[in-house]
Amino acid sequence: MSLENYRMLKDPDRSFIMHHETLSFSRWHYHPEFELVLILKGKGRRLVGDSIDRFRHHDLILVGPNLPHAWICDNEYNFQPGGFQGEAIVFQFTFDFLGSRFFEIPENRNLKQILEESSRGIKFLGKTKDKIISLMKGSYDLEGTDQLLLLMTLFNLISKTKEYHLLASTGFMEPYHMEGNEPVQRALDFILHNFNRDITVKEMLDITNMSNTTFCIAFKRITRMTFKEYLLNTRIGYACKLLSSCSMTISHIASSCGFENLSNFNHQFKKLKSITPSAFRKQAERLKTFP
Fold first, then answer.
1. Which residue, among 20, 18, 37, 39, has the nearest Cα to 150 in the 3D structure?
2. Could you give the CA distance from residue 41 to residue 234 in angstroms, rounded to a whole number?
């Protein structure tokens, strides 16, 4: 299954896209827009970056710009006499669709942070998910202004929630940049460029000019992980990229990602991905041949 840069067609008198999808949405693709996807009908495998998981109806995902993704429905929804049986609602918008400063104003601080986190893909959960779904259902029947007001309501819900988790590993896409958190951002940039070797907490403290306690609290508040968890996620994320895109041996990939030995790499990979590196590679190869 090839990776495509796929763009939906936006009406010339609209600032964003609201699309009722009734054709196959299994294309493995990316695009520069943010995309909020609600699956109304369908079940199968969802790919977001290096995250491969099952989905079913009412799957609700926010995908950031240029993050590869696909929803591959099971055969019961494909190849039917009446055509494709799946259904979804998709909102697409660019960061500047409401002007270059809309997401920069102080009132949108929380919303901007979640949009930055969507660079790894966000799965919404709980009551927030239920509220968003109830608003999105039937949204394709609304007129332009009402659709815009609906999108503003969705932004309001998204900006206030903690009911979500991130999908792709930190190493699959570059870390997001957050204004006002420059010391921790310097640490994230350092990890991105040096994760293939041993990185100590002391180096993090020197880079951020923080005490150990202050650094640990600030790092976890921003990344939702400890330093060790983030470093491991970055290494495993990059390993997933290599496993799915090149023919390097697994032993060579382990070494390239900063693991001292193959045994530890296999253990940590399975602990994080619930699958072995060799099985992940086989699964990625099978997905490339999906019609």
1. 18
2. 34
